[in-house]
Amino acid sequence: MSGSPQTRLVVLDRDGVINRDSDAYIKSPDEWQPLPGALDAVARLTAAGFDVVVASNQSGVGRGLFGEAELDAITAKMRAAIEAAGGRLAAVHYCPHHPDAGCDCRKPKAGLLERIARDFGVSLAGVPVVGDSLRDLDAARAVGARPILVLTGNGERTRAALGTSPGVEIYPDLAAVAERLLEEAAR
Question: Is-catalytic flag, 23?
Answer without folding.
Answer: no
